[in-house]
Amino acid sequence: MERRDFLRAAVVGGTVVTLGFSVTRESIAYPAKTGPSPYGTLQAADANGIQLPAGFSSRVIARSTQTVAGTGYTWHSAPDGGACFADGNGWIYVSNSEMSTGAGGVSAIRFDANGNTTSAYRILSGTTRNCAGGPTPWNTWLSCEETDFGYTWETDPWGTKAAVRRDAMGRFKHEAAACDPDRKVIYQTEDTTDGCFYRFIPTTWGDLAAGGTLQVLVENGTTLSWVTVPDPDGSPTPTRDQVAGAKLFNGGEGAFYRNNICYFTTKGDNRVWAYDAATNQLHIAYDDNLTSNPPLTGVDNITGATVGDLYVAEDGGNMEICIITPDDIIAPFLHVTGQSASELCGVAFNPAGNRMYFSSQRGTSGSSSGGITYEVTGPFRTTL
After folding, report:
1. What is the mean pLDDT of residues 61-73?
2. Helix (H, G, I), strand (E, B) or coil at 83
3. Using CA atoms, how far apart are residues 44 and 50, in angstroms rounded to an integer?
4. How many helices (H) and strands (E) does the chain have?
């Protein structure tokens, strides 16, 4: 029996499987198991074709190739990774554009305290396949190019400062970035079947212009270590091939850091990983082969709510955003109907945590020009 099949049989059969998983408040018993959502069952699809828990509602914020309501700005095609930034009493939602051959970039929508759109604008242009990325503690957005020799770009959500390419963060098929303010490093994922998990150590925390050191996670038996990548430029030898023993991951996707743990996803094997930076240990927080009736496949973008819940979007699967609770239950939070040729991405919460934003990259048309960006409001929980 294959190891993964054995593990699934053991978990489903109720047998305790010990894989060295640590016990923490946020992950008491890795890996997550299928169970009931804290928000209850999904209701019938609303006017936007979205099934939500009782008490929640959705609205369309923007559509690709169309003017954002209340502004003169045309929303970009193929919306992907995103994040929210506090803006006085309001907030800003930034969104990548995963378009090829220099047609990518990043756009932003500004909201007032009541959630009304006040403006929309471009903050990065001329780049390629801006897929995911990550916010920084100093209120910039790292936008990552998912192409073989892609870069990480640091952008200004307010659109005041020009975007800057951060070469020291490496040149590879970037996917996502997650800042660890405790160790003053930035984790990065790589979207290839033999991708690596990286961390960038800035020379000066809060000032990426000062450069820094790119390292890759290496596995030797059961021991993990970080080794410096000799040539972050990735030419002629790709960064993932420069360090012997680098741990490989099957299609790195989203990343999110909280309380000493960097959660990141791999789409090739439908896993959510938890790298515990305090203990330098790597755990499987979710694997579709380790639970019965797995609700989450096509594992992609990931974010977290302040209460401790994780939200993971699907690229493929059945177009759901799933919730993983601190007691390691996984269940669908929402289901988008009638858009099977699309993918869900850009999941982010406003600063108050009572509005969720996400995009369907190709919408109902199945084309990059048909992308739709949504907002979900409702009684998101603030206590466990």
Report:
1. 98
2. strand
3. 8
4. 1, 27
Q: What one-letter code names the amino acid at 70?
A: G
CB 255 within 8 A of CB 178: yes
Cβ-Cβ contacts under 8 Å for 320 (sequence gap 6 or more): 295, 296, 314, 332, 333, 334, 335, 336, 344
- Rounded Cα distance between 211 and 87, Å, is 28
* 189-to-127, 171, 317 alpha-carbon distances in Å: 19, 12, 21
Please tell me what DSSP assigns to residue 3: H
Cis-peptide, bond into residue 31, ω within 30° of zero: yes
For 4-116, list the strands marked E by DSSP.
33-34, 50-51, 57-63, 79-87, 90-97, 105-111
Rounded mean pLDDT, 57-68:
98
Give, as one character, the DSSP assignment of residue 195: B
Contact between residue 271 and residue 294 where contact means Cβ atoms under 8 Å apart:
no
Q: From CA 321, how far away is CA 164, in angstroms rounded?
A: 32
Amino acid letter at 221? G
Write out pLDDT tens, residues 282-313: 999 999 999 999 999 999 999 999 999 999 99
pLDDT at 22: 34
Whether the pLDDT of residue 63 is over 70: the answer is: yes
Q: Does position 353 have pLDDT exceeding 70, yes or no?
A: yes
Cβ contacts of 161 within 8 Å, gap of 6 or more = none
User: Is the pTM above the cut of 0.90?
Assistant: yes
Give dist(CA 204, CA 370) in Å, integer: 41
Alpha-carbon distance 94 to 47, whole Å? 25
Q: How far is CA 181 from the centre of its chain?
A: 18
For residue 269, the SS3 value is coil
